[in-house]
Amino acid sequence: MCLGIRTFPNNNGGLTDSGFNDHFGFSEAPDYRNGVECPSITSSSGDPSLVHVAMTLDSEYLRGSMAAVHSVLRHASCPEHIFFHFIAGEFDPTSPRVLTRIVRSVFPSLTFKLYVFREDAVINLISSSIRPALENPLNYARNYLGDILDPTVKRVIYLDSDLVLVDDISKLWEVKISEGKIIGAPEYCHANFTKYFTDSFWSDPVLNRVFGSRKPCYFNTGVMVMDLEKWREGHFRNKIENWMELQRKNRIYELGSLPPFLLVFGGKVEPIDHRWNQHGLGGDNVAGSCRGLHPGPVSLLHWSGKGKPWVRLDERKPCPLDYLWEPYDLYQGKEKVQHHQRQEQHLVLHSNLVGYSSYFF
């Protein structure tokens, strides 16, 4: 299923080679450390005091991932207690070892492990979606977290790459998952649940009874607390794959990796406060237009949808809420390119002036 590249923080600060960092355009994050009130920790990923966070890591969304990690550390009461699990695609243009070096150079004291996701595990199960980006095999890595992560990891928070936290992640970690439930996520029961499946699904006399007496609500899979012990025991990876196989034969949904989760867990999700996923800030999956916040307090901002804040900021066409993402952005590449361009222009101008003066004098 995967290969693991494990790395722990270095006392000497790790790989902070400025030349390497400059090449990829990221500045080093501040060094976030535990306060005196934080309990001691061991180097084992099975330490019960650790908060486990899983995220995918790829070259296209790397800038978003670095901002997300930065936001988690910045607001954590005990940042050294956070163990990150990064899942990278085997065919990504940036190799897993290079991705590991980038993470280490940006966050020298971070404790993390990077896994190489074998995309052939899912590639034959993926069907076309309304947006090509949703067909990336890495979007389906969350289905395999029970297999990918060490068996000692019994609980994990899964986070998408296009979000930032503005609250302490330990509060999300402490959410209780009731007996008989596997995952926790904010639910949105006012949403039109029927639109996530095709007419052929709802018109099928067998399929449309799949929810039985359950009352399914929409939930976004970009923020989930997952009980991996129950996940493994219940073989939920296989249950999701069964729906994906059916989708290949009889198109029952249009929206990538989300519908299988709705089919398996809809009506059986531990509801978490909406503050932990203010989603949809990227607009819809077609236009990516600007959207506002849902009513209520905010602990996590999520740019799900087509529009991404770093793209709109670079294009100088930001939505108002994109400015809330910007303080966590560690990417300096564009400024450095412009700085080098100005230096080169200055050198060319200086060279021309030297030639001009020597010609006349």
UniProtKB/TrEMBL annotation:
It comes from the Eukaryota. Its EC number is 2.4.1.-. Pfam families: Glyco_transf_8. InterPro entries: Glyco_trans_8, Glycosyltrans_8_dom-fam, Nucleotide-diphossugar_trans. The keyword DNA repair does not apply. SUPFAM superfamilies: Nucleotide-diphospho-sugar transferases. It is found in: Membrane. Keywords: Glycosyltransferase, Transferase. Pathway: Glycan metabolism; pectin biosynthesis. Its main location: membrane. It is a single-pass type II membrane protein. Belongs to the glycosyltransferase 8 family. This is Hexosyltransferase. It comes from Rehmannia glutinosa (Chinese foxglove).
